[in-house]
Design brief:
- The protein has 344 residues and is an alpha/beta fold.
- It has one domain: Histone deacetylase domain (Arginase, Chain A, 3-Layer(aba) Sandwich), CATH 3.40.800.
- 35% of the residues lie in helices and 14% in strands.
- The protein is built from nine helices and ten strands.
- The protein has an eight-stranded parallel sheet, with helices on both faces.
- Strand 6, helix 6 and strand 7 form a beta-alpha-beta unit.
- Helix 1 crosses helix 9.
- The longest helix has 20 residues.
- Bound molecules: zinc ion (ZN).
- The site of zinc ion (ZN) has 7 residues, from loops.
Amino acid sequence: MLTVFSEAHRLHYGIELKDGLIARSFENPQRAETVLARVRATGLGDVIGERQYDRSHYVGAHSDRYVRFLETAWDEWSATGRTHDALPLVWPVRNLRDDIEPAFIDGKLGYYAMDAGSPIAAHTWEAVRASANVALTGMDVISAGARGAFALCRPPGHHAAHEYMGGYCYLNNAAIAAQRGLMQGAERVAVLDVDFHHGNGTQDIFYDRADAMFVSLHGDPSVSFPYFSGFADEQGSGDGLGFNANYPLPKGTDWLRYRDALADAGRRLAAYAPDVLVVSLGVDTFEGDPISHFALTTGDFVRLGEAIAVLGMPTLFVMEGGYMVDEIGTNAVNVLMGFEGRVG
Ligand SMILES: [Zn+2]
């Protein structure tokens, strides 16, 4: 299986507001490097760099004005004399006005963010754009006929919605890739999200569409980030009604419980019969993950890959979360080895 990787991810490593403190982000460059090292150590396949794509490939999954915000945010922030990472401070919740885009960068940051987990620094946009281009390159590999490919994206993308960033995410790599699959001739695409956290951004982007199904297994949002999305009664709207499926699972979920939900998700996907499957591959479902609370073991990730392979769909794996850095490489590549029918 081909892996797509960009060294530009190293340009981005920010701060986050967590546990009442500002600290270095759990989402750090070593994550991608550990996965890359494991790809090479196992001989999974060749590693290629990303192709270049212009901003028009991001618009669709995202609004034009949101992409414009990401392109200009650092310049507007630093023009005020600040040299540290930009984070939002105020958000347009419930009855506050959300119909007027603020003119000043401090307002824009809150307008286009769901939380204080996606810092913007001088080179963030370069890394974000490269990560989306890694996913787009991966989709081109699939569209050219490959059975599977691995987009080793960083930063991740599945919390980024049509018009907001959050949860370490800026552009939604999986949705951007799925959108490209449709443009390249697929009639239907599906995204299966196996990250511990609900892929609220991907759900938001495809919620009212019938040409893209979104299926997510994740920690129960009543006790897990992102808290305000991911409940089982979110089933799509308009043309998209019936093409969104959430499987919120309790704390401590192990492989036996996970496997049952995955089997049900697989039946939905098989009935939909997409031309292309995108897997949002987060391995923060691992028992040792520092910010999540499922109990999958390293060996279980091989089973996960095998279960995805049984669906028999051309499959692009897009890297999302996973914060136990020592094990992220083994766990992520075990999914890919399972998919390929190789012992992890
Ligand atoms: Zn996650």
